[in-house]
Automatic annotation (TrEMBL), chain A:
<dbReference type="InterPro" id="IPR001041">
    <property type="entry name" value="2Fe-2S_ferredoxin-type"/>
</dbReference>
<dbReference type="InterPro" id="IPR009051">
    <property type="entry name" value="Helical_ferredxn"/>
</dbReference>
<keyword id="KW-0479">Metal-binding</keyword>
<dbReference type="GO" id="GO:0009055">
    <property type="term" value="F:electron transfer activity"/>
</dbReference>
<dbReference type="InterPro" id="IPR025192">
    <property type="entry name" value="Succ_DH/fum_Rdtase_N"/>
</dbReference>
<dbReference type="InterPro" id="IPR017896">
    <property type="entry name" value="4Fe4S_Fe-S-bd"/>
</dbReference>
<dbReference type="InterPro" id="IPR012675">
    <property type="entry name" value="Beta-grasp_dom_sf"/>
</dbReference>
<dbReference type="InterPro" id="IPR050573">
    <property type="entry name" value="SDH/FRD_Iron-Sulfur"/>
</dbReference>
<dbReference type="InterPro" id="IPR006058">
    <property type="entry name" value="2Fe2S_fd_BS"/>
</dbReference>
<comment type="similarity">
    <text>Belongs to the succinate dehydrogenase/fumarate reductase iron-sulfur protein family.</text>
</comment>
<dbReference type="InterPro" id="IPR036010">
    <property type="entry name" value="2Fe-2S_ferredoxin-like_sf"/>
</dbReference>
<keyword id="KW-0408">Iron</keyword>
<keyword id="KW-0411">Iron-sulfur</keyword>
<dbReference type="InterPro" id="IPR017900">
    <property type="entry name" value="4Fe4S_Fe_S_CS"/>
</dbReference>
<feature type="domain" description="2Fe-2S ferredoxin-type">
    <location>
        <begin position="1"/>
        <end position="102"/>
    </location>
</feature>
<dbReference type="GO" id="GO:0051537">
    <property type="term" value="F:2 iron, 2 sulfur cluster binding"/>
</dbReference>
<dbReference type="GO" id="GO:0046872">
    <property type="term" value="F:metal ion binding"/>
</dbReference>
Length: 249, 223
């Protein structure tokens, strides 16, 4: 395959960026999207140019590092991560636009790399349980009803890639935050911090400068792990419940 | 508690949802009342007068009407201020647009902000036209709403403003009602279809019910 790439190039956080056009040839349909970018970078290095910086780690769709907006879609046209997207999803001769996640809470570090530490701070605000850790406890010591376990697991699938923020017209982190809250709040292990978790995490989310939800649904469409939009409804419910309880104290 | 409500983006959205539902409830009643125009001037004018005597003798003349007006103004202000502040936050959160643009979300979703502004302006015109009579075409007569309505819908611009606003209302309610259910945490996977259906039915019935009046005047059914 022969492709034309239009890639966002930005020297550093303070520099102005712009789209640069590159031609790549001999791209196999079986390559992943990141392997295609590796091919481009090899050529750039051989020519003595600065390679395109992009985030990647596991390359098997579970770490949440890769973060490319491809032709206007977070992670591209398939519902998966950029690393699990294959070039067979494109046609020979296509022009592909590659941009970084866009949100004021995710500032560009270089080229396609953004700083997602705002997510870490949301987790630090309450995305954990304070139960003592150590060796894995006996699985039947704390019974969890099957529907609750399934619900928790569905939300635990969130890999924190930030595609929801990138896709949201308001740059909101509601889907990410709700996935983390719902995951822990439904489980007995997460029960002691059920109220403080949702109040603190939502407060931190606002503090980081993320937008709010207008129920456009773009986040759930972009999510490579299929976190549903109704997850946000669940978070709102938990937040209202916690606010009521806090008011009574 | 109120302070945390207003300080949080989730809480502010709750204010928007609750105030929206208050206005929506009023609109259903308002639309049903309007339809009485199809039963003649006596019935319509009598109904309009009754609005001032609701609650008598417990309430004084027009008290109920003024209570409703105060609640509605509070709802409009709360809705608009929360919408303005949340929109400011949303726009700040996404300062850079993507170079590669794609059509996003449904038409109803994308037009919430502009639709809301159109509806706000409409409310101002509507009150100046048919409540105070300030911008009313022809001689505005207090206590004769039947004739006043016919006067308004005998002008081309009266019909255009009203019908455009009611179409905007339909779109606004369509996304707004369903969104309110999500914001208030009552939506769920199993209830999603029900909420979407109620939203669509409300939007359609309100728009059709309100537009029936200018259409009635234009076609001569109401004269």
């Amino acid at each position: 395959m022969k492709l034309t790439l239009r890639v966002w190039r930005q020297r550093n956080a303070d520099a102005d960026g712009a789209m640069s056009t590159y031609e790549v040839d001999d791209i196999s349909a079986d390559m992943s999207f990141l392997e295609m970018l590796d091919t481009l970078n090899e050529e750039l290095i051989l020519k003595g140019e600065d390679p395109v910086a992009f985030d990647h780690d596991c390359r098997e769709g579970i770490c949440g590092a890769c973060s490319l907006v491809i032709n206007g879609d977070a992670h591209g046209p398939e519902r998966t991560t950029s690393c699990q997207l294959h070039m067979r999803s494109f046609e020979d001769g296509d022009t592909i636009d590659i941009e970084p996640w866009r949100a004021s809470a995710f500032p560009v570090v270089k080229d396609l790399v953004v700083d997602r530490s705002a997510f870490d701070r949301i987790i630090q605000a309450g995305g954990y349980v304070t139960a003592p850790t150590g060796a894995a406890p006996e699985a039947h010591a704390t019974p969890v009803p099957k529907p609750d376990a399934d619900f928790a697991f569905e939300h635990a699938e969130c890999i924190g890639c930030g595609a929801c923020v990138a896709a949201c017209p308001n740059g909101a982190a509601m889907l990410f935050t709700s996935a983390k809250i719902n995951h822990l709040n439904v489980l007995p292990q997460g029960a002691p911090e059920r109220e403080t978790r949702v109040l603190d995490m939502v407060a931190q989310m606002d503090e980081e400068g993320f937008g709010g939800c207008t129920l456009a649904g773009e986040c759930a469409t972009a999510c490579p792990k299929g976190i549903p939009l109704v997850s946000i409804t669940g978070m709102n419910k938990e937040w209202l419940r916690a606010t009521r309880k806090a008011g009574k104290r | 508690m109120t302070r945390t409500m207003w300080d949080s983006s989730v809480g502010k959205k709750t204010v928007m949802a609750a105030s929206g539902l208050i206005m929506l409830g009023y609109l259903v009643v308002h639309m049903l009342g309007n339809l009485k125009i199809f039963f003649g001037s006596d019935e319509f004018n009598h109904y309009a007068h009754w609005l001032r005597t609701i609650g008598e003798p417990f309430l004084h003349y027009e008290w109920a009407l003024w209570i409703i007006r105060v609640v509605l103004v509070a709802a409009v202000v709360a809705h608009a201020v929360s919408a303005y502040q949340l929109s400011r936050r949303d726009i700040r959160a996404r300062p850079t647009k993507y170079v590669h643009k794609k059509p996003r979300a449904s038409y109803a979703t994308r037009t919430m902000r502009w639709g809301g502004i159109i509806l706000g302006l409409f409310i101002v015109w509507h009150i100046l036209d048919l409540t105070t009579g300030t911008v009313h075409p022809g001689g505005f007569q207090h206590g004769h709403p039947y004739q006043n309505v016919i006067d308004t819908f005998s002008t081309w611009y009266g019909n255009v403003i009203y019908i455009v606003a009611m179409l905007a209302l339909g779109l606004h309610v369509r996304h707004g009602f369903w969104s309110a259910a999500q914001t208030l945490g009552v939506g769920s996977r199993t209830r999603d279809r029900a909420f979407k259906t109620i939203a669509n039915v409300l939007a359609l019935v309100l728009t059709a019910g309100f537009i029936a009046v200018p259409v009635g005047v234009m076609t001569g059914v109401v004269s």
